[in-house]
Amino acid sequence: MQFFPLTRETYPLWLSFWEKTPFRTADTTFINLVGWAPVYGLEAAVEGDLFWIRRTQNGETSFWTPLGDTQKADWDRVFSSFPAGTCFERIPLPLAEKMQEACGRVENVTPTPEQDEYLYEREALASFAGRKLHKKRSHINAFERLYGVDYRPLTVKDIPAITALSEAWLAAQTEPAASLQSEHEALVRMLTLWEIDSTVRCGGLFYENRLIGCDFGSAVDPTMFVIHIEKGLPEFRGVYPTLVKYFADRSIDPSYTLINREQDLGDAGLRYSKTTYQPVDFVRKAAFRLR
Q: Is the whole-model pTM more than 0.85?
């Protein structure tokens, strides 16, 4: 395979395969790929009818789920060019099972719950009605009481304010880490792709005319919308659930019945937070090697 970097110029090629992809994930949206490419050492290649994504990080190499019409792929033939021991990860579980059934070289298909993407009903997050979300609703009530609600749709003209918000968020972290710096840098790269994808929506909460929280996302498919970026200043009580509510209600079209809030990466705190929003399903993933 001839690999090439994932850049803004890759978009038309990526899109030609994305449109044929039946098993889509937040991982492989163009905004995510380019945003996180330097962190994971991501690069791409086209082989036959498939668009491959390879991770090269800390001396390790693996392949993420390929894009294209994977329903029609001859996996015996496709995998014939891969050496034994090649690792595949972040593969949607139904596709991994299909690959294993079709090719005897696929072994040890293992679910990877830390990579599963959390799915929520848009309508539920737009209202926070019902007993299960009562605690979240109380945080929203507190935010509204303390600060009022100044929610605005954001445009590319707001990129400097969003970047400043992310910098303030980073500075407010009690335990600075390289991973948080990488997250900020990924956000900055994602914002440069805003105008490429017509499904991108962004909205923010303001207090005294200052941006204190924002959500940035795009479509995964006609019924699913993914949140790529969510940043809020921690000194504002209830900023995150309030941001979730108003973004879901005012910025995400009702035609998107599901909101994808991505994976927890095995972080216990992140897992707890995502669980409290009451997911209704997951994009489940798996990893495997070739024998």
A: yes
